[in-house]
Design a protein that fits this description.
Blueprint: E1 2-7, H1 16-26, E2 32-37, E3 40-43, H2 47-52, E4 60-66, H3 70-82
Antiparallel strand pairs: 1-4, 2-3, 2-4
Length: about 90
């Protein structure tokens, strides 16, 4: 199991369109992946779960992956977030 912290830098946070891109990317990996904010942890492959965290610009989240491609999953999802979802 691996984890990393990432700060959301795009203007709308992880809402609607960016969250959809995030979940689509998460679903390309075999590993189990979670998003953690403060004391809540949700499945990164669940749109409702991710949206329920209310992640806005400037929020630091923890990505957690467990599985055969966990390092690749964390690198890919971190890169997507750091690219501001190509906005």
């Amino acid at each position: 199991m691996k984890s990393c912290d990432v700060t959301i830098i795009n203007s709308v946070g992880l809402h609607a369109r960016p969250a959809t891109f995030f979940i689509q990317k998460a679903n390309t990996y075999r590993s189990s992946i979670w998003v953690e904010r403060e004391d809540r942890r949700v499945n990164a492959k669940s749109l409702l779960g991710v949206l329920s965290l209310g992640i806005v610009k400037g929020t630091t989240i923890t990505l957690i992956a467990d599985g055969s491609d966990e390092e690749e999953a964390l690198a890919g999802l971190s890169a997507l977030i750091k690219s501001s979802f190509n906005e």
